[in-house]
């Protein structure tokens, strides 16, 4: 198999099988690979991906060259200890299992409300009509921002997750970087104004709580506050939207799993974990080496960008027997989709809860749910996440 000189995520669902074959080739023969065109390093095996995600002493998450104008450079996703622990602690209470469990009735009400609008039609776009509005409404209510701005939130989120992790020089990637910059500027202006309003009129929401929070006796800077808002809004909806969409893609492709879940809904938690492993909503993450580091027999120099291919680690046979088989009863299932170590996704309990409520409801209220034949689904062009922008489905109308 010819090695791709510039690794790229799949651009269509039809490319998925070939892409996973390429990942298997890289795991077997090029587990640590330097792209000669970009100088970026890529790691593919489970143990190495886990190490890159976890070992902050060797692989830093701190932003490199992001600039003061980029709130992501000031957020916890772009920080190392001790600052990371301080920032994460500010929002951790809002994402504890107990706090998240209290949202279950509201999530169920929202999900039922969305399905009430389509059950008699026999068809819908799963992403537009359900998988996107559900989590974006939940995270918007937590933050205290109006869900009526959903269209803006979606446009901003799409631009942010579509930028390639390692950048690029071709016209399409330059356009993505420009859209990313515009989205960041617009979100910064929006949240900056919202922070001014909350400063004058605090409310019972996460933004007001962040405004009042202190780290070592000092308040957060405006850029740190905006960084929190941007990160939580984008990650809070993008992860769950793609998880729900990817789950329906997997269930449709594996009707035996759909039948198992219909007969035994108690299998759904394991099915969600298998979706996260088999077709992960987070495809890869980037780190920067703090010094020369040896990985899989290769010396990666200091200050090198390293992309950890989560989608590859999740298919490593050394960790997962028969890794290309979709098995909703797989145990153990220590996938890396939500990260590992101190950077484990803080919203993972929320994403699991939302999917755990939404997916059984979909199967229960939309009998014979399946993809619309011959209807294309557009894949998100992203180096970070995997999902589809649209997913036409049909089902037996319930009147």
Polypeptide structure, described:
With 399 residues, this protein is α+β, with helices and mostly antiparallel strands. It has 15 helices and 12 strands. A hairpin with a 6-residue loop joins strand 1 and strand 2. Helix 5 crosses helix 7. The longest helix is centred in the middle third of the chain and has 32 residues. It is globular. The model has no long low-confidence stretch (mean pLDDT 91).
Strand content: 5-15%
First-to-last CA distance = 53 Å
- Poorly predicted sequence stretches spanning 5 or more consecutive residues: none
Number of helical elements = 15
Q: Describe the biggest sheet?
A: 5 strands, mixed
Report the average pLDDT across residues: 91
N-to-C order of helices and strands: HEEHEHHHEHHHHHEEHHHEEEEHHEE
Structural class: alpha+beta
Q: Report helical residue fraction.
A: 40-55%
The 3D shape can be described as globular
